Amino acid sequence: MYSNTIINWQELIIVPWEKRNPLWQDYSIDCFRVFHGYKEGSKGTVIEKFPRNDLLH
Question: Would you kindly state where each structural domain of the chain is located, as residue ranges?
């Protein structure tokens, strides 16, 4: 079942992005979950940062 709801990704991701700012600044950390949808408002969506690329699933 699909929903006609439009997600404002910029609004949804800004808080977790800023909350993880220390991870972005620490060069000894090379991978982490940027966005966890179940906790942050888009159930089933995950954004992860890896050394050479990012993954959205």
Answer: 31-57
pTM: 0.75
Structure tokens at 14: 């800004």
Per-residue confidence in pLDDT tens, the chain, 57 aa: 556 678 888 888 899 999 999 999 998 999 999 999 888 888 888 999 999 888 888
> Which residues, at least 6 apart from 30, have a Cβ–Cβ distance to it below 8 Å?
50, 51
The DSSP result for 2-53, as a single string, is: ---PPP-HHHHHHHHHHHTHHHHH-TT---EEEEEHHHHTSTT-EEEE-SS-
Quote the radius of gyration of the chain (alpha carbons, Å): 13
